[in-house]
Amino acid sequence: MALKALASLVSILAALQAANGALTRRVACPDGVNTATNAACCALFAVRDDIQQNLFDGGECGEEVHESLRLTFHDAIGISPSIASRGQFGGGGADGSIAIFEDIETNFHANLGVDEIIDEQRPFIQRHNLTTADFIQFAGAIGVSNCPGAPQLDVFIGRPDATQPAPDKTVPEPFDTVDSILARFSDAGGFTAAEVVALLASHTIAAADHVDPTIPGTPFDSTPELFDTQFFIETQLRGTLFPGTGGNQGEVESPLKGEIRLQSDSELARDSRTACEWQSFVNNQAKLQSAFKAAFRKMTVLGHDVNSLIECSEVVPTPPPPASNAHLPAGLTHNDIEQACATTPFPTLPTDPGPATSVAPVPPS
């Protein structure tokens, strides 16, 4: 009896191993170089290599990466079930409408400046067999993989292209109130306040071109080439200056020369609904990566049934490891923090040595 039971157990284990092997078996791609778990993903390797070399300057975390990531959001957030409930078209989410209907959507105030990256991406879309909807999200995920400290983002294909433009005012503006921003994200995809904060981790590698047009390419933190927690630290420092001209809509004072601060970021960092979540990213690179990865995954499929898409995340390169430690900029101390989280003290951080920090602007593309 014992021998029969052992033989039965061995048989079951062998069957499980065979089933697992079948599930994970990879197929050889036609290029003779790569393999994939789904043959539909094979075409993405050539797209990835093309944009890495020719759009992202050989794999840099530069301006085109920043703008490609911005485009993923501006396309995907263009969906509103509340508008649709009134019998009007509420947008298709991540459907490529921002590029397909460029002449309409890039004239929306919130989308000023995205026409440049749309025009840069167009030749790549034309020479590869991807929908515009898929390409925009794919390019954003590949670009982020060039940034030290970034998570390896998820990629899906199979989105159909838009047939109508998204409605205006579905993209939040930097001068919107916290109430308005949280309501817009909730309407678009049921995003929680914590998920909104996580999505704003994108600002760690971002820059502003049109908030103050006299200083295009001005970053939101002192390390715009690194996907790190400095953005969440520096937004909580007391603002003392404008890096360019004052009085711009959607801008408040920054703590550093060469760094711009959006009104929306400042208010979200200090609002009781989001302040503690904001502070929780300080000096927590692991949470930064995991929370942004999850929020990006949710955003990138807005308007689609994820079960109808094909996941091709394996095509995304592993990003370089983190290349910085959380710190206060030179010349500033813990006393410059405007403590907003009522329940948790602000973490103790080292201060960079040397003269007061001055951030060099990101060169415009």
Order of helices and strands: HEEHHHHHHHEHHEEHEEHHHE
Which band does the percent of strand residues land in? under 5%
CATH architecture classification: Orthogonal Bundle
Sequence stretches where pLDDT stays below 50 over 5 or more residues: 18-22
Q: Give the C-alpha Rg.
A: 22 Å
Order of the strands making up the biggest sheet: 1-2
Number of helices: 14
Quaternary structure annotation? single chain
The largest sheet is: 2 strands, antiparallel
Net shape: globular
Give the tally of β-strands: 8
Number of domains: 1
- Helix/strand-derived category reads mainly alpha
* CATH class label: Mainly Alpha
User: How is the CATH topology named?
Assistant: Peroxidase, domain 1
Q: Roughly how many Å apart are the termini?
A: 75 Å
Determine the mean pLDDT.
93
**Helix coverage percent:** 25-40%
